[in-house]
Amino acid sequence: MSIRPHRVSTVAVGLLASLWLVSGCAENREVLTSATGGEPEFIRDVSSADGPEVGYGGSGSSGGGGTQRAELRVDPAVGGTVVCGRYQLTIPPGALSYETTYRIEYDPRDPELIFDLYPHGAQFHVPVEISVNLSGTTAQDYDDVTLYWFNGDADSWVDVGGVWDSSNARLTCSLSHFSRYGSGRAGW
C-alpha cells in the first residue's frame, strides 16, 4: 500500500490550519488541557456548604434554590453594572452599539466558582469588566489566581488572566466576549 503525496499534503495543511486557528483564538493565552483531559485547579468556596448567599450584596433570584441570576437591560450610550452574588459586571458606554440585556448566572451549590455571562458570544467594541469577590474561598491560599474561559469548540479552558488583589480577595478581568468562566490557579 502506498501513501499518495496529495493526501499527505492535504492532511498536513489541515493540521497546520487547525493549530493556527487555535493559537489565534487563544490570543496568546495558554490553552489548558491535560493528558487525562482534566480541568484547571478551580478556586473553591469554603465559606459554607451552600455557597456565598449572605454578605456579598447584589441582586439575584434562585427559582427554587438552584441557579442564581441577575440581569440588566443596558443603553449603549450609558453603560451599567450587574451584580449577582460574588460577581460584578461593569459595562462601559459603547461596549455594544445596541441596547441589550446582560446577565450573570451561577449555581451557588457548586463549590467550584463557575459562572456564565450572557449574551453568550457577544463581542464588545470596548471591553467589559468582571470582578469576582473570592472571600471565603481557597483563593486566599494562592498568589497565582486567574480567570479561565471555556472554549466549547476546543473543549478546553483558556487562561484569560486578570488582576488578583489578595488583600481584598478580588479578581478583576477585562473581557472582550461572553461565555462560561471560572476562577482558578494559573498554570495548573
Proportion of helical residues: 10-25%
Q: Rg to the nearest angstrom?
A: 19 Å
- Which fold name is given in CATH as the topology? Chondroitinase Ac, Chain A, domain 3
Oligomer: single chain
Instruction: Summarize model confidence as the mean pLDDT.
Output: 77
Number of helices: 1
Q: Largest sheet, if any?
A: 7 strands, antiparallel
**Could you say what the CATH architecture is?**
Sandwich
| Strand order in the sheet with the most strands | 1-9-8-12-6-5-2
Distance between the termini: 44 Å
Question: How many strands in all?
Answer: 12
List the domain count as a whole number.
1
Beta percentage is: 35-45%
Succession of helices and strands: HEEEEEEEEEEEE
The low-pLDDT segments are 6-37, 49-63
Tell me the overall shape: globular
Assign the structural class, choosing from mainly alpha, mainly beta, alpha/beta, alpha+beta, or little secondary structure: mainly beta
Please provide a brief summary of the model.
It comes from Eiseniibacteriota bacterium. This is ZU5 domain-containing protein. With 188 residues, the protein is mainly beta.
Features:
mainly beta, 11% helix, 1 helix, globular, ZU5 domain-containing protein, Chondroitinase Ac, Chain A, domain 3, 188 residues, 5-stranded antiparallel beta sheet
Verbal overview:
The protein has 188 residues and is mainly beta. The chain has one domain (30-185): Chondroitinase Ac, Chain A, domain 3 (Sandwich), CATH 2.60.220.30. Helix content is 11%, strand content 38%. It contains 1 helix and 12 strands, in the order αββββββββββββ. It has one helix at 5-25, and strands at residues 31-32, 68-74, 80-84, 87-91, 100-106, 114-118, 123-133, 145-151, 156-161, 163-165, 170-177, 180-185. Strands 1-9-8-12-6-5-2 form a 7-stranded antiparallel sheet, with no helix packed on it. Strand 8 (145-151) and strand 9 form a beta hairpin. The protein is globular. Residues 6-37 and 49-63 have low confidence and may be disordered. It comes from Eiseniibacteriota bacterium. Residues 41-70 are annotated as: Disordered. Residues 54-67 have a biased composition (Gly residues).
